[in-house]
Structure formats: structure tokens, C-alpha cells
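Homework-ish question, so no full write-ups if that breaks the rules, but can someone show me the predicted structure for this set?
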Amino acid sequence: MTSSSLSAANGKPDIVTLERVTKRFPGIVANNSVDLSIRAGEVHVLLGENGAGKSTLIGMLSGLQQPSEGRILVDGVPTAIASPRHALALGIGTVFQHMMLVPTLTVAENLLVGGPWWQRPKAEELEARVAEISRTLGIGVNLHAKVSELSLGEQQQVEILRALLRNSRLLILDESTSMLTPKGIDDLGALMRRLVEQGLAIVFITHKLKEAAGFGDRISVLKLGRKVGEITPERLRALSEDEIIAQIVELMFGKKESDPEEQARVARAFSAETTPLLQVRDLAVPATATAPGLASISFDIRPGELLGIAGIDGNGQKQLAEALAGQLETSGGSVRLAGENLDGLGVGSRREKGLRYLTDDRLGEGTVGTFPVSINFFLKQIGTSPFWRKGVEQRQEIDRRAGELVREYDVRTPSIKTPIGRLSGGNIQKILIARELAEGVKAVIFNKPTYGLDLANTLATRQRVRDVAASGMAVLLISTDLEELLSMCDRIAVMSGGALVGTVENSGDARTKVGRLMIGLAA
Amino acid sequence: MTGLFDEVFLAALLFGAVTAAVPLLLAGLGEQMSEKAGVLNIGIEGMMILGAYLGFLGAYYSGSLWLGFLAGALGGMAVAAVMALLCVRLGLNQIVIGIALTLGLEGLTALLHHFQFSRSYPRLPAADKTAIPLLADIPVLGPALFQHHLVVYFAVALVFVMIYIYRRTQLGLNLQAAGDKPAALDVAGIDVIRTRTIAVLTTGALAGLGGAYLANVGAGIFIPFITNGAGFLGIVLAMLARGRPLWVLFGALLFGVCLSLTTAMQVAGINMPTDIIQMLPFLAVMIMLVLFGRKASLPAALGMPYERGAR
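A: Not a homework solution, just the prediction itself:
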């Protein structure tokens, strides 16, 4: 029995059906015999880890790629979706993970891009239609704003609007929540609900379990290119959120668990007499037009202690990390590591003294995407022995050590010669961690270490951070994920407007206290 | 030093400036369209030289300047078609192909010219001028600016056509998207390759026309390497103008004045080595780059071939 006849039995027709779709790339099978039925009036969640094959599936539905085997049916008719134009004509609109708007154009111009080149853009008609859609769906966009000035959430709304303007019957949202604030995620969930009520089909791709359980009518789980399970609407309705999550985890990892992100933290006591390993006093950085400064930041971290920095993104966390690492010039204050004054030292010297910084900008400042994995391990040691001698690269030594690190840190890469930019975020993060934990480390600053990682890599990274602290290092963990901080830190400091507004011992009612500090109340 | 500022001298200087500016203007406007769409068209010098050669041949054998211009524009487009095939469709390196086309065509036209005319350099009759009523009677400015060949007025009008295309038309939007974020254009259902090809072919036609004007009107003769970097100056103009056609016009006029000074100073009997005077336009380029070029924001995808689905 094919899936199309299956769905006919349920009353709702398939808009798009995938039958045993396989997509091969040189060296990997991205999708392996995937069946999927996408119906009007349903939010169909595609859930899977990084590399599960979600994006490839979307590529085929939106006409960017063609299946190697199997077929795609549109309204029950086998159809080769040849190009993005063809996909749009079939009523398949996609909001890609990476924004597909021209930053130098206005919102209106972006919505007009794509008309036949010999025509005048129909600006008046556009305005009327946007007004109509905005009214019924409650999304408001300023048509005359330049896209580069919009927040990511606003840009996403523009993309959804664009798909609706083109009369899409199927809307595909690829990892659409990864850039959104919690409020933005809730808004998107509500918007999806209104859209499916109007009869649209939505494919919602995510690797976050809570979103899948919260927003989905039907959940398909992908793992290593295969579809490993599907939870039907009937089942979803019958289960509580916790049961759904447990079921998904079972599908994804083959074992039953409650929310795997919840892990009991062993409370540790630190004697007040212990000499702090990292001492920061009155650190100050002047504000710029685009970034907040730092106002007299002071804290101590004792050996083995994990201090968390909580706060809403953009309150000076990155500036703090960069000032400590020596990347940002300070206007006052001092940093001492194991009693030694680091003031005035540059990035390289601080690193040599044992102060390490793991950036949140993995691809931008953390790695050179086109360099092989092996060289990226030693980017911060270029020119130093034993990897370079008299300015000459010691390929054998680099490869040998890189090979060891790949095994030790469980980096999944085709080879140490692979350009690092081709790896998934989780694997790039492992390489960065390995690099920063190299010989001589005393204190580590982790800036949003699990941002954008899938569940397995998030858990592995968190364990790595815990291990670093347990081995007697001082750890500063900057994160916007409060759950993460609560599950890991000994103390949590809250940052707001470039200042530390309070520090809380992580015990008992820490959650409430931190929460109050974050929204501007005294703990 | 007599007569440097008298009326006749000034009129001649400005007239020469306009004549010298027109090929730069056409090349600059053409290059601007390619760059807007994300193609760095280094081959424009080659398009100009072939345009100059074919333009000259067309006019020489048919006796009609207009057929010459048509031949020149088609010649430029033919080179552009090769460039579009190699760089836009097949995604080869735009700089390498551009340089190869330029060097190859400079050599080829010199060789063909040698076979055809040996060491003789036949001249075309002076081009017809069209005076604009009333304006042409203004002292100094009249003869300097408003008594030119029709192509000159066409080139200036083209500035405003380009402004209209970029600001007001669907093609303008699509071109800018092709240069700034080609993937966005692709998923909006427009063929990036086709959009860029349209831009490159337009560049070729304009560059070829510019070359033909240079030979047929500016010089009245074809000599090998006659373009002498005019295409490259067009690239500079397009880079400096950052997508604004009016700036290409101003820049072209400025360079035109510099080029015109070369002859004008000799006419005025100012004793200065010609080599130094001939350096003027290039000195002007460098000064302009220092003044305006430092924060030039070029299209994000300039010079990068588009491949669907590539990360």
C-alpha cells in the first residue's frame, strides 16, 4: 500500500508525497528511501540531528536538487521538481535556514524580486495584497525598511509573507527557530497554527524536541538519512508533552529517557579561603555605536569552579569575553591569572599564560573554513615548535597530533585533510575545544558553546565543559540558555547593560533569583 | 603661455574632453551593469578593441558610420557571449578569462589589421556633427558640448535610461539581486545565469559601441591597441560609482578633461614632456581612488560564479 492511498483513507489529501526517495552525494547517502506524506491543514515536523538529511529533503522539495531514486508526487501525480521556479509554480514555498533576502534592497523590493524582467514592478498591487495578508495573519512588516536593518525574526516574517504572496499551498520552514528569541518562537508557532487552519500544509524542520512536540500535528523523525519513525496526529493528541518527548527520544536514540537535557548537577562546595585562579577587577570597556561597553566588571573564579554569565544576548557578554581574551582594548581594570597580572598582554601572550577563549563565532573568527582540519587544530600555534620549525610547516608532526586529537575528541570528519568548513557545527566545535584545551590551560572562557548544536553534540560539549572544571581549571561559561547554566554552574552572575547586576549561588531557588535579575529586579 | 584661457582654447579643450569621455562613459555604464549583476568583467578592454576594429571595418567598407557602430556593438557582444558562456554558465574564473580575452583580442586585432592594411592606416571622413538648436549657440559651451555626433547624445541619454532601469524596473531589481544575493534570486524563481548573461551581453554591446566611437569618431582611424586602457578606466569608473550611473558620467568627464589636456596643452604650445601629460588620467584615477574608493561597497557576490545548491 502506498502512502498516498493511506492518506486518502484518513480523509485529508496529500499535497506532496515522497515515495522511497533516495539522494546520494559523492561519498554519502543524504536520504535513504524516505517516505513522507504532507497534507493540507497539518504541521508536519521533520525532526533530526545535524546531518540527518533534513536539508537535503528540503532541497529536493524546493527544486534545488533532484532525487537519485524514488519519486515525488504532487497532488498524486509523479512530478520532477526541476527548479525553484517550478517548485513555486507548484505552490511549494520555502523559507530557508539561511535568509534568502537581498540585504541591500527594501522589503517591498525583495517581495518584488522574481517578476518577469520586462515588466514594471507592481508596487501598488503588492501593497494591497500585503495589507490583506497582514490583516488576516497578524504579521506586520514595514515594506519600506531596508532588509539589512531588520532583525532576523522580522526577515523571517518577510520570507513567510513572500511564500504566501506566491499562493503557496505548502510552506516549508527550515530550522526557522534557530535564530529567534523565545518570544519569536512562540509567535511563529501561533502563526503556523493560523496558517494550517486556513488550509495550508506546513513542513517544519527542527532539531528541538520541545518545538516538535509543541507545534507539530505529525512528527517524522529522521536519523542518518533514514526515516526512523512517524508519530501520527491521533497519537500526538493522546500523549502528553513529556510522553511525546520520551517517544521521540526513543526514536532518535533508541532508548527511553526523560528530557535528556536535564541532568542532575552535583553541588560542590568551595572554601572561601581558596585562592582564586582567575581574578577580574573593575574591568571597563567604552561603549561604541553598535556595542555596549563594560562597566567595572569584577569577579573571581576558584580552581575547579564553573561561573556562569546569564543575561539576554547583546548585554556585553561578547565584549567581556573578548576583553578577557585580549581581543578588545580595555580602558581600565585588571585581570590576574594564578596571581600573575595579564594587563597589557596581547591575545597570544594571554593564551600562552593559560587563559583560553572559545569563541561563539565558530566559522568567522574561530576557524579558516578552507583550511584542512589538521591546520585548524593549530591555528593559534602557527609558527611555534614542534609544528613549525624555523618557519617551515612540519606536516608529519601536525598530521600525527591532529590524528590523535580527532580520535580523542571524537571528531567525525572524512579525513584530517578535509576543509573544516565542510564539517557540521558540532564537529567544528569539537575541534575548537580541542584547540583551546591544549597544553598549559588554566582558565577557559566558553562563549555560548552549545549555540546551534544538535542534542547529541550539545550534551557532549556540556560534558566537556564540566570535565574541564573538574580537572581544576577556572571556567567562565557565557550562555543565553538559562537551563544550561542552571544544570552546570556553581555560581551564576547576571549581566545587563554591560555590568554584572548580581551573582547567585546555584542552589535551591537560583532560577527565580537569576530570572528576577535578568528582568531588572533585585534578587 | 599665451592663450591658455581664451575662448577657442577652452572650447577645444571641452570638446576634446567630451569626445574622449564618451568611450569611457559607454564602457563604464556597461561595466556597471555587469558588476551590479555580480560579474567582474575584465574582458571589457577586449570587447572595446574588437568593437573598435569591427566598427572601423564596417564604416570603412560600407561608408556608413552607423553600420560601423552596429558592427562594433555586435563585435563587443560576440566577445561578451564567450565571456558569458565561460564565466557565467560554466563558472570559470572571471579575472583569468577576462585578462585572456583582452590580451588575445588586442593581439588578434593588431594582426588582422596588419594583414589587411599592411602599414597603411586609412582614414575615415570626419563624422557628421549634430548641433542642438539654441544650446549650440552659447559661447564656449555651445561648440564644446552641443555640437557632437549623435552617439554622444545617445551615451548621455543612456545614463538616465540606466538610472530608470535600476530604480524603477523589474530588471533592475533582478540585476541587483543577482549581484548581492544570487541564491535569493534563484529561489524567487528567476534564472541567475540568464540574468547575468543579459547583463554581460549588454556590457559587450556598450563596450563595442564605445570602441567603435573611439575609432570612427574620436580618431577617424584604427590603429592597433587604440583603446589604450579605456576599458580598464571603465572598470575603475564602475567601481568608483558604486552602482550610480550619474557618477559614471561625472567620472568619465573628469577623465575626458585629463585626456583632452594632453592634446590641448600641446596645441597651446606649452612645453612639457608628453609622457607626463599622458600620465594625467591615470594619476587622476589614483587620486580619485584614494579620495572616494576606500569605502567602496561592491556587490557581495561580485566575481563569484553562481552554482545552485553550492554551500
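Now go work out the reasoning yourself. Hint: Strands of chain B lie at 130-131, 147-148.
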